[in-house]
Amino acid sequence: MIRCMTSLCLASALAICMAPIAASAGDAIAKKRAWLENRDNAGFVIAVAHFPCQLKRITQVQSGTVTNGSGRTIPGHSFLEYTYEWKSAVDDMSYQTTLTYFFDDQDDFYSLKTDRTTATLQPFVAAELIVGLVSEAFENNEDNGGKHLGQAFVNVLRNEKDVKKAMEILLDTQI
Question: Is the pTM here over 0.70, yes or no?
């Protein structure tokens, strides 16, 4: 459930970030490539997939049309596949993860697939654990009569971009 939520959160974030990229069919894929290959964007994607890590390099593997389970082309659907080379902040080792991004016939992003990784932990596992702990803290707070923990946590992250302070808000309700 949490894995699905984390993947859905990343997919939603990517869809929102890529929404303004709508253009003519020829320009659409080029703009999506530009967004995905931007170092800051690529760093964000791989950091969510393998928290905590640092992007070393991103390489486009392939692109093409999407086929269904019967091998038939789905009209207008396309994909972009990238390999991310990254360094783990946990064990200081380098790894590779390949992700595929899928786009519909309106050139809108709709899905993210992990193709392979050399890491021991599969993508999104650490992020899922964090989301699970935070969700549990929110639920415990609400069960104990608290109402504003979630909003306070989000506000600190959004407005102050202070992860330590956000964690202190969570800990204040737990210990």
Answer: no
Which residue's entry shows tokens 């964090």? 130
CA distance linking residue 77 with residue 67, whole number of Å: 8
Element spanning 171, H or E: helix 163-174
- Residue 83 sits at φ, ψ, to 5 deg, of -105, 125
Burial of 109 per CB tally in 10 Å (0-12, 13-18, 19+): buried
CB burial class (10 A; 0-12, 13-18, 19+) of residue 149?
Answer: buried
Per-residue DSSP letters for 14-49? HHHHHGGG---HHHHHHHHHHHHHSHHHHHHHHHHH
**What is d(CA 132, CA 6) in angstroms, rounded to the nearest whole number?**
9
DSSP 134: H
Q: What is the pLDDT along the chain (175 residues), one digit of tens a residue?
A: 444 445 444 544 454 444 444 445 568 888 889 989 999 989 988 988 888 889 999 999 999 999 999 999 999 999 999 999 999 988 999 999 999 999 999 888 888 899 999 998 888 887 777 777 766 766 666 665 555 666 777 777 667 766 667 766 666 655 4
